[in-house]
Amino acid sequence: MSPAADRLAQLLGHFLPGPLPVRVRAWDGSQTGPADAPLVVLRSPDALRRLVWQPGELGLAEAYVTGDLDVEGDLADALSHAGRSVRDRRPARPGPAGMAAATALAVRLGVVGPPPKRPDGRARLTGSLHSVSRDRAGISHHYDLSNDFYALLLDESMAYSCAYWTRPEDPAYTLADAQRDKLDLICRKLNLGPGDRLLDVGCGWGSLTLHAARAYKARVTAVTLSRAQHDHVTERAAHEGVTDLVDVQLRHWRDIDGGGYDAAAAVEMGEHVGDAEYPAFAAKLHDALRPEGRLLIQQMSRGSHAPGGGAFIETYIAPDMHMRPVGRTVDLLEGAGLETRSVEALREHYTTTIDAWRATLEQRWSDAEDLVGTTTARVWRLYLAGASLAFAEGRMGVDQILAVRPARDGASGMPATPAGWYAGAVPA
Fold first, then answer.
1. Which residue in 69, 92, 132, 148 has the most C-beta neighbors within 10 A?
2. How many CA atoms are closer than 13 Å to the CA of 175, on its beta-carbon side?
């Protein structure tokens, strides 16, 4: 019988013309494919059986997270190489004779059989889309994974969003520095000062909330749907001595009450709002602000001709996430009566940020496995590698959108130029 790798190459040749996009080592130790291509290891016929039962991205992802499929070397490099090769050569569906031959090869490889057990960690949401209960379950699936795991992955501020790398060429400049620079940039764009009221919608683990209170003496109302995050921010506020300036609320954005805020921010929270719900979200933010109050939205977007999310992200990472091109978000904000004053693209900054998280994950791999298990750790390794590529290749972006609620006479209270956002001393 011929080696498994040779039969595998014949099987894939029925669907993808030309040489294999990667080098493959099969479960019997045989290899095939270009010698200079990334090496993909198939540890079991189950890797292919998963694709039979779950064709496409999700089947490949589940083969990886279970360990049926592995990659030697950098995962993002392998994904990039394979993705370019496949995009350059459109996969084809064989005719009847080709399908018969492919099926015979699949039988000989041991691929045909019952579906393999699906890995743990799938999101299982019920109820109507973006109901309060379903949103709470979706947020819990992602953000309540483990505070200790996020503390391992992130910098000490627990900022789980794109950083702002002002000195990336400086080897002494760290992720923590870049996250602090991002938080200062947001606070300066919002013109925060002592006593100003800030609404932080989707506050995460409190990086912006606590920085605004500690460094700018702002009074912050922080809103989250995650119980773990609510408790964490409350504890941090007490530890840092800013409980008199921070009010942490466990509630849905629809249930935010009151108004008259000097500023509002939603840092990578709008992706969880939903498409149909975004006009109401924008209106809620508008109504929360006083006239001339400023809004800072930092939000991921998808390219105009690229899908956002995907089956793997929706199933294992962030269910019900919705992304749109940045221009569409600007339209929705202005439709709610807000005036857009600045849009700053941070796409390359996110690649650098995610790569810092990836490096930490690899350096502390055994700790991550101890905290969340090997399967979930592999989910995150794949998620971060794919996300890094998506931003590097321009399929996804992230932008800071600064808007203002104009006064009735049209006054915005905005400075003549944005120079002050990028210069000046950080408050003590």
1. 69
2. 21
At 126, list the tokens: 């019920």
- The CA R_g of the chain, rounded to the nearest whole Å, is 24
274-287 per-position pLDDT tens digit: 899 999 999 999 99
- The position carrying tokens 């080709």 is 98
pLDDT digits (tens, 9 = 90+) for 101-116: 878 887 888 888 888 9
d(CA 266, CA 84): 35
> What is the pTM for the complete model shown?
0.92
Nearest by Cα to 346 from 165, 199, 169: 165
List the structure tokens of 385: 């590698």
Rounded to an integer, what distance in angstroms lies between the CA atom of residue 267 and that of residue 160? 9
HSE at residue 108, side-chain half, CA atoms within 13 A, is 16
What domains does the chain contain, in order, with CATH numbers? 4-109 (no CATH), 132-421 (3.40.50.150)
